[in-house]
Design goal:
- By secondary structure, the chain is of the alpha/beta class.
- It folds into 2 domains: 355 residues, Purple Acid Phosphatase, chain A, domain 2 (4-Layer Sandwich); 188 residues, 5'-nucleotidase,  domain 2 (Alpha-Beta Complex).
- It is 28% helix and 27% strand.
- The protein has 15 helices and 29 strands.
- The protein has a 6-stranded mixed beta sheet with strand order 4-3-2-1-15-16. Strands 6-7-9-10-14-13 form a 6-stranded mixed beta sheet, with helices on both faces. It has a 5-stranded mixed beta sheet with strand order 23-20-27-22-28.
- Strand 13 and strand 14 form a beta hairpin.
- Helix 4 runs antiparallel to helix 9 and helix 12 crosses helix 15.
- It is globular, with a radius of gyration of 25 Å.
- Bound molecules: zinc ion.
- The site of zinc ion has 6 residues, from loops.
């Protein structure tokens, strides 16, 4: 079944490229060139192996070196691309502004990277610093500086493996300004990736005349182009362009293994080490390697007389493991495939960074007697005790009467037991700041009415503290603040995060309100201090009591 899938794919690519290939003829007639594209995406700070010994750049280095050796010993060439989002997600990396991650990528020998939305979690000055550190280009054709109308990044890079001309275009989701921290986007514009891709491909075909055009994107893969409330992704991009204009899209952002079960449908629970058929849309191959360096995607192509043919595609797991549970309640983590040893050279590079990061995070702050719920499948659907704790911390720091934030801003749970700064940073990794605003009762009512319309199963789903109401049919009734019916003429202080205050997740913008204050306090630091002051924390006091009802 797999073989026929790949064969069909290869045939389709040949057909598509025959129509569009305009070679500069750096290659020889009737010679077969082996070109292997390796790819990763959504690394999110995972430079070090996980607590169970999975992934990490040290094992990835060994794996990539092996593939390079294999391909090059057969006269072939390797290009290594990233679909972006290197930043944000692991505290040891976050406190070091992802320096170990970019240094590690240099050592592995990345050739280019798409700029992801999370590259903007820090001010642009940090991103420019990272760009300087990296020995490979950050690519994005559709990010512009508003004031100058100039692109902020290189739109493409050209590579010439064995004289075959390969252009790699970068594209970034135009959701970035909506889902990122709006404070950083005052002079940055994200144009429609598909429109920019069309322009850039035409320009390339006029000027560089590449043999192969690949897009490294950070836009997401949505089955059959059903992108829901997200901006259009890779499938929509491929369909919008002339057939086969792009040979391949190396994607990211949706963080899945793109392995198709049948046409237009991904395998839901892909098992590491099993065959993977990438997506094929309108003559364009679409790949994505899940996230965090869990896999390195490997596409082995042959290029001959202007035609590119996929010979084989695989997702190579990087020491992924499954948890085997025993009847005595104990469990064991077992590798799917034989272990890939970590590169000593990479460990020498990364160990000092890991130590430095750890030292900053491992200090005990306090404790809690039950789990504080921050699971994605909870905080985007219902009120949780962890949201309550975070909002209580915000109110305590800002002397607010009530608080609200989008559930998507809560990224992890806190387990019962001791709490460290590392635990806190996993919950709030984005470095947003605490803000507050003094609303009239009427303004509070209007604001909460708007926010209560945000739907479950999205990052925008709201979490509340010190408010109760019934929301139905676009209206709020029985609104109470701090247990008292709202007085429309009274003043109430609301705390939230700069992200939401600036309109993030589609919440009403309040940063223009006359009473708006950005405290400059980092969210994780606010929570950290609250935990220190209020430990041991009794989780029962934070349990939601059905205060809000949203239908
Ligand atoms: Zn992303």
């Amino acid at each position: 079944m797999m073989c026929s899938g790949i064969k069909a794919l290869a045939m389709a690519l040949v057909g598509a490229l025959a129509l569009t290939s305009t070679s500069s003829f750096g290659w020889e007639k009737d010679k077969t060139y082996k070109i292997t594209i390796l790819h990763t995406n959504d690394h999110h700070g995972h430079f070090w192996r996980s607590e169970h010994g999975e992934y990490g750049l040290a094992a990835q280095k060994t794996l990539v070196d092996r593939v390079r050796h294999e391909v090059e010993s057969q006269g072939g060439s390797v290009l290594l691309l990233s679909g972006g989002d290197i930043n944000t997600g692991v505290p040891e990396s976050d406190v070091l502004d992802a320096e170990p991650d970019f240094r590690g990528m240099n050592l592995i020998g990345y050739d280019a990277m798409a700029v992801g939305n999370h590259e903007f979690d820090n001010p642009l000055s940090v991103l420019r610093q990272q760009e300087k550190l990296a020995k490979f280009p950050f690519l994005s054709a559709n990010i512009y500086q508003k004031s100058t109308g100039e692109r902020l990044f290189k739109p493409w890079a050209i590579f010439k493996p064995q004289g075959v001309k390969v252009a790699v275009i970068g594209l970034t989701t135009d959701d970035t300004a909506k889902i990122g921290n709006p404070e950083y986007f005052t002079d940055i514009e994200f144009r429609k990736p598909a429109d920019e891709a069309k322009l850039v491909i035409e320009e390339l075909q006029q000027s560089e005349k590449p043999d192969i055009i690949i897009a490294a994107t950070h836009m997401g893969h949505y089955d059959n182009g059903n992108h829901g409330s997200n901006a259009p992704g890779d499938v929509e991009l491929a369909r919008s362009l002339p057939k086969g204009a792009l040979s391949m899209i190396v994607g990211g952002h949706s963080q899945n293994p793109v392995c198709m079960e049948k046409s237009n449908r991904k395998i839901k629970d892909y098992i590491p080490g099993t065959p993977c058929t990438p997506d094929l849309q309108n003559g364009t191959l679409i790949v994505q390697a899940h996230e965090w360096g869990k896999y390195v995607g490997r596409a082995d192509f042959e290029f001959r007389n202007g035609l590119l043919t996929l010979k084989r595609y695989r997702l190579l797991p990087v020491n992924l493991k499954k948890e085997l549970k025993w009847d005595n309640g104990k469990s064991e983590w077992v590798l799917y495939l034989p272990e890939i040893p970590e590169s000593p050279q990479m460990l020498t590079l990364l160990s000092p960074f890991q130590k430095k990061g750890k030292a900053q995070l491992a200090v005990k702050l306090g404790s809690v007697n039950q789990k504080l719920e921050g699971d994605r499948n909870k905080v985007r659907f219902e009120q949780t005790n962890l949201a309550r704790l975070i909002l209580n911390a915000q109110m305590a720091r800002s002397k607010a009467d009530f608080a609200a934030m989008s559930g998507g801003g809560i990224r992890d749970s806190i387990e019962a037991g001791n709490i460290t700064y590392k635990d806190v940073l996993k919950v709030q990794p984005f470095g947003n700041t605490l803000v507050y605003v003094d609303f009239t009762g009427q303004e509070a009512l209007d604001y909460l009415t708007a926010v209560a319309q945000k739907k479950p199963d999205s990052g925008a789903y709201p979490q509340f503290a010190n408010v109760s109401f019934n929301a139905a049919g676009g209206k709020l009734s029985a609104l109470k603040i701090k247990g008292e019916p709202v007085d429309l003429a009274k003043t109430y202080r609301m705390a939230t995060l700069s992200f939401n205050g600036a309109g993030g997740d589609g919440w009403p913008k309040i940063d223009g309100h006359a009473s708006y204050v950005n405290t400059g306090f980092i969210d994780a630091e606010v929570l950290k201090e609250y935990i220190q002051k209020n430990s041991p924390i009794d989780a029962a006091t934070l349990a939601p009591q059905g205060e809000v009802s949203m239908k």
